[in-house]
C-alpha cells in the first residue's frame, strides 16, 4: 500500500494463482476467451457469479467458502475497506489497514483548569458567550470576574454625569432660556430637501428673502398684499408670496389655502358681472398639498366646475415653476349672517375675548416667532397655560391662542374672510406639547367658513385626538369677538421626524 496526498491507494494484481505443490502439475493457463464459458471463471459480466467468487462475510481463517474452488488456499478475513475498483473487475485487492483515528481534545469548561494547567499555574480567563481561554498568570485576556466591581462603578459614575447634565438643561429651560433652540434647528433640517434651494459646496444655504417693506416698516396690509392676483389670461393668475407667510423655510399651508380661495372667487367674479356675486365667499376649501414651495412667485390655474344660484365649484392648482404645490377644490356661496337655530357650548368660549396680560406675545425676538414667521403679518398671543412646550414641559395636545389681523386688513370684509380661513391652520403643531418638535407637513386640509367674522380678536383652539406612529389629525375652531364660530377645520399631517 502506498500513500499519496493523504489517501490510500491499492495495487490491483492479476487473478490469484497458487504455486504447484510437490509432485503436482497445474493446468495450463487459458486465455480470457477460453475461460469466458467456464462456470469456474464467469468473469465480470454476471453479478451473481462475481458475488459467488467473493469470500462470505465472517468467513474465518482456514474456512473455505462454498463458492471457492477445490485446492484454493483458505480465505482470509475481509478487511473493513476493500478495493472496490479491483473487486468490480473480478480481481483481488490488497486489504487496507484501518486508519488510525486522532484523539480530539475536549474544550475546557469556563472557569475550570486541567491537571496540566493546574501544575503550570495557569489561570483561566472567563468570557461570556465564548469558550474559556487560558494564558499565563499576570497576562490575562478578556475580563476577569474580579474586574466586575470596577466596571460597575464606572457605569454608575457615567450615569450620574448624564443625569446631572439633563437636570441642568431642564433648569435652564425652566428659567426661559430659549426652550425652542433645538426645535428650531431640527425644524430647519426636517424640511423637504427636494424643494430646498441648491447649495454651493463649501458655502451655507442662502437665507430666505426679507419681508416686503414699505419704507422702513412692514406693509400695513400684509395679508391683502398676499392675495393680490394679476390676471394672465385663460383663468390663470400670478401672485407673490412674501417670506413672512412661512413656517420655517416653507410657505404656510393656511396662507396657500387662502390664496387658492381668493383665486376661485376672482375667477367667478371675472366671468359674471352680477351684483349678487359680491356677497359670495369661499364656504369650504379642501386642499391636497403635493409639495412645499418656497416664498416667491406662484401661478394659480382655475377651472369652473359648476356655477349655480346658491353654490358654485371651482378647482384651483397652485404651481411654482412646473411643479404643482397645492390642488384645491373650492365651494363658494353666501355664508350665514343671522342667529343660528342651534349652537352648542364650546370649551373655547371659556377663553377671554381679549388676551390677558400674562399671554405670551410673539414678538420678532421670541423663539417661537423665529419658526412661525406668520406672527410678523398679524398679532398673535399664545395662552401659556396650554402651550407647555414653551416652558420645556409636556401636556395634552391642545394649544389656545388669540389672533387678529392688521387694522388695514380688518377693515376690508373680503380680506377679513380670507384671513379667517387662514387661521384654520395658524397654530403651531400640537405635537410639540408631547415633546415632538420639527416639521409636521400637512397632507390634506379642509376648512369651513361658517360666517363673516366680526372685527376684533379671533380665539383659536387647535387640538388632536390621536397621535399615531406616522400620522395625526389636528382640528381648529375659531371664534370671533361675539362668540360665534366662524371657522372649523381639520387636517391630516405627518408626525415630526
Automatic annotation (TrEMBL):
User: What are the Acyl-CoA thioesterase-like C-terminal domain coordinates in residue numbering?
Assistant: 364-495
Biased composition annotated in UniProt, kind: Basic and acidic residues: 30-51, 189-213
Biased composition of type Low complexity is found at 108-124
Tell me one Pfam family matched here.
4HBT_3
Q: Domain named Acyl-CoA thioesterase-like N-terminal HotDog: which ranges?
A: 243-333
Reading the lineage from the top rank, the first entry is: Bacteria
* Protein name listed in UniProt: Thioesterase family protein
Amino acid at each position: 500500500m502506498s500513500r499519496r496526498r493523504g489517501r490510500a491507494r491499492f495495487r490491483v494484481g492479476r487473478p490469484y494463482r497458487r504455486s504447484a505443490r510437490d509432485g503436482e502439475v497445474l493446468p495450463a493457463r487459458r486465455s480470457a476467451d477460453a475461460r469466458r464459458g467456464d462456470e469456474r471463471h464467469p468473469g465480470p459480466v454476471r453479478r451473481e457469479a462475481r458475488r459467488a467468487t467473493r469470500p462470505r462475510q465472517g468467513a474465518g481463517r482456514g474456512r473455505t467458502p462454498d463458492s471457492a474452488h477445490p485446492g484454493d488456499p483458505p480465505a482470509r478475513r475481509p478487511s473493513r475497506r476493500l478495493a472496490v475498483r479491483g473487486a468490480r473487475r473480478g480481481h483481488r485487492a490488497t486489504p487496507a489497514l484501518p486508519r488510525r483515528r486522532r484523539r480530539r481534545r475536549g474544550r475546557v469548561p469556563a472557569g475550570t483548569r486541567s491537571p496540566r494547567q493546574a501544575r503550570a499555574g495557569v489561570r483561566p480567563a472567563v468570557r461570556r458567550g465564548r469558550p474559556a481561554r487560558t494564558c499565563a498568570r499576570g497576562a490575562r485576556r478578556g475580563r476577569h470576574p474580579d474586574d466586575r466591581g470596577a466596571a460597575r462603578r464606572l457605569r454608575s459614575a457615567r450615569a450620574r454625569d448624564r443625569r446631572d447634565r439633563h437636570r441642568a438643561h431642564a433648569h435652564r429651560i425652566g428659567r426661559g432660556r430659549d426652550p425652542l433652540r433645538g426645535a428650531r434647528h431640527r425644524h430647519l433640517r426636517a424640511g423637504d430637501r427636494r424643494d430646498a434651494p441648491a447649495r454651493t459646496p463649501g458655502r451655507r444655504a442662502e437665507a430666505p428673502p426679507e419681508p416686503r417693506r414699505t419704507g422702513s416698516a412692514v406693509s400695513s396690509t400684509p395679508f391683502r398684499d398676499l392675495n393680490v392676483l394679476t390676471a394672465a389670461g385663460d383663468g390663470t393668475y400670478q401672485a407673490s408670496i412674501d417670506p413672512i407667510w412661512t413656517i420655517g423655510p416653507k410657505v404656510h399651508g393656511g396662507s396657500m389655502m387662502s390664496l387658492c380661495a381668493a383665486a376661485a372667487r376672482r375667477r367667478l367674479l371675472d366671468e359674471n358681472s352680477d351684483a349678487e356675486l359680491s356677497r359670495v365667499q369661499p364656504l369650504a376649501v379642501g386642499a391636497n398639498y403635493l409639495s412645499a414651495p418656497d416664498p416667491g412667485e406662484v401661478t394659480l390655474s382655475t377651472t369652473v366646475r359648476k356655477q349655480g344660484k346658491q353654490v358654485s365649484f371651482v378647482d384651483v392648482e397652485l404651481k411654482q415653476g412646473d411643479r404643482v404645490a397645492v390642488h384645491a377644490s373650492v365651494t363658494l356661496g353666501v355664508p350665514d349672517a343671522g342667529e343660528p337655530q342651534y349652537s352648542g357650548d364650546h370649551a373655547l368660549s371659556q377663553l377671554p375675548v381679549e388676551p390677558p396680560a400674562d399671554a405670551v406675545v410673539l414678538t420678532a425676538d421670541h423663539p417661537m416667532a423665529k419658526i412661525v414667521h406668520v406672527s410678523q403679518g398679524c398679532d398673535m398671543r399664545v395662552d401659556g397655560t396650554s402651550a407647555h412646550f414653551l416652558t420645556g414641559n409636556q401636556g395634552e395636545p391642545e394649544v389656545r391662542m388669540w389672533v387678529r389681523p392688521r387694522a388695514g386688513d380688518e377693515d376690508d370684509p373680503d380680506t377679513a374672510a380670507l384671513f379667517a380661513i387662514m387661521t384654520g391652520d395658524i397654530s403651531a403643531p400640537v405635537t410639540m406639547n408631547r415633546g415632538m418638535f420639527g416639521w409636521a407637513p400637512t397632507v390634506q386640509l379642509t376648512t369651513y367658513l361658517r360666517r363673516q367674522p366680526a372685527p376684533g380678536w379671533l380665539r383659536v383652539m387647535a387640538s388632536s385626538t390621536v397621535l399615531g406612529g406616522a400620522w395625526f389629525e389636528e382640528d381648529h375652531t375659531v371664534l370671533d369677538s361675539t362668540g360665534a364660530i366662524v371657522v372649523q377645520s381639520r387636517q391630516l399631517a405627518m408626525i415630526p421626524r
